[in-house]
Amino acid sequence: MFHRPISSEEIPRRALILAGGGVRIAYQTGVLQALEEEGVGFQHVDGTSGGIFNTAMLASGHSVGKMMDRWRSLPMSFFAAGRPFWEYFRPLRMWGFSDAKGIRKKVFPHLGIDISSIRSGGFPANFNLCNFTTKQIEAIPTREITEDHLIAGISLPMLMPALHINGSWYMDAAWVKDANLLEEVELGATELWLIWAIGNYPTYLKGAFHQYVHSLEMSANGGLFEELERIKLINRIRKLEGRSEGEQVKLHLITSVFPLPLDSELFLQKITARDLINQGYADGKRYLTSRKPEGVSLDHTVTQTEDVGETCAFRMKYSGKLIWDGLPKDTVFYALFKISTTKLEEVAIDLFSSIYFAKLDLEIPLFAKEVSVKPHFGNTLVEVISEMVLSGKIYLVHTNWILMGPWYQVVGLDFKDVAVRIFPKNEISEKPVIEGKLFQSFWDRVMASFFTSTKGKDGMGAGIKTRINLLRKMIQI
């Protein structure tokens, strides 16, 4: 998928651009899985800020499936590493509030990032850093990369110290640009595939943390929009020069409809890397299903996210045995259930899920295509139809929940079980090839209730009242 060199005769020449997004960039691996299933190949990869993690994993020789597995099993505590204790008594003189020791000694080894493999493997990729000394972005190829370069490329000011390398200070490039599209255009790419994990929220929210995130959004999106304007100019010049349509630079951009949860949600266990992977997969499939050959418009609307109202999201874990080829097989079903109100007070329901088959030792993300809610003998029936790709074949996954009411979820007495039926998509069959019921333990239900992420319209945390109201709105659809 990634190892073919750029050929001057090959049009379109595709580049994969992995932008930043903190530690939420496990999301990108779900998108990569969707692209791989679609057969979309690339001649070059470009990583900036958090996207450096996934670029380095690819350059270390890992498959997309292995990347997802490593992100799922990565403890968020590995990122935590404090500065010397005495420095916190002098906050105005600190190099940063945290240190890179955890990333060097725990995160990189767990993700399988290997510098020697990157430098010697010949993988076609660049890593973007900000040279603070010269105030310029430098794209460093794999053959020249060092561990210090990778650390510097993810070192945001105030959070982690800049690094002094070969006489210059280096740091995260996100404040200048979060994706280096023009570098790929200069290398000959005419089709850019950008995976964007930074928000572009239309409403200014209160609170110092939100406003710090807003400043990152402004820098990242502002840098991207400036590059899009330059690409439009390049396209106009090429057209005037009489070049072929295939030499026009096109952009495909995959991002979330609603803003991704912030890093704090991961550290507080409101969401997991698995949930982000599953959401990335769903967003990737959604884009591929409706994409246009000419790509997206090269303007400021490309990263715009919905202006959401109240939101409630909780994760679930079901386990048990499904009947497969007449025999019960151990299976685990993971899901993040999300209820949101839009600016127009409409209710949106999303399910980001995956299923693990112990028989294959394989976890597969699902793409929820239809979600319906209807009354069911005094309770509520939630039906979801998803798609799953197994061994190159597409299956439809039908999942059903019987819910008793909002308060039952709050105290951990609802979402007890899920009925699962799996059918081959393009075969006429009334009998599922895999079916059965999976169960969620009482402990998992209690923990799902405890770690529910609920937010108000102002983006701040909300309580049980908001959760109850959203669950009621969902039931009344």
Protein model, in words:
The structure is a single chain. With 477 residues, this protein is an alpha+beta fold. The protein is built from 13 helices and 18 strands. The strands form two sheets. Strands 9, 10, 11, 12, 13, 14, 15, 16, 17 and 18 form a ten-stranded antiparallel sheet that branches. Strands 1, 2, 3, 4, 5, 6, 7 and 8 form an eight-stranded mixed sheet that branches. The chain is globular, with a radius of gyration of 23 Å. The model is unreliable at 3-8 (pLDDT under 50).
Which parts are unreliable, with pLDDT below 50 for 5 consecutive residues or more?
3-8
**Number of strand elements:** 18
> Radius of gyration from the CA trace?
23 Å
Query: Main β-sheet: number of strands, strand sense, barrel status?
Result: 10 strands, antiparallel
Computed structural class:
alpha+beta
Strand content: 25-35%
Tertiary shape: globular
Mean pLDDT level: 91
Helix content: 25-40%
- Figure out the total of helices: 13
Distance between the termini: 42 Å
Q: Would you spell out the secondary-structure blueprint of this structure?
A:
Elements: E1 14-18, H1 26-38, E2 44-48, H2 51-59, H3 64-72, H4 101-111, H5 115-120, E3 125-131, E4 136-141, H6 147-152, E5 163-165, E6 168-171, H7 181-186, E7 191-195, H8 208-240, E8 250-254, H9 263-267, H10 273-290, E9 308-324, E10 327-342, E11 347-357, E12 362-365, E13 367-376, E14 379-390, E15 393-403, H11 406-410, E16 417-424, E17 434-439, H12 442-450, E18 453-455, H13 464-475
Parallel strand pairs: 1-2, 1-7, 2-3, 7-8
Antiparallel strand pairs: 3-4, 3-6, 5-6, 9-10, 9-17, 9-18, 10-11, 11-12, 13-14, 14-15, 15-16, 16-17
Helix pairs in contact: 1-3, 1-10
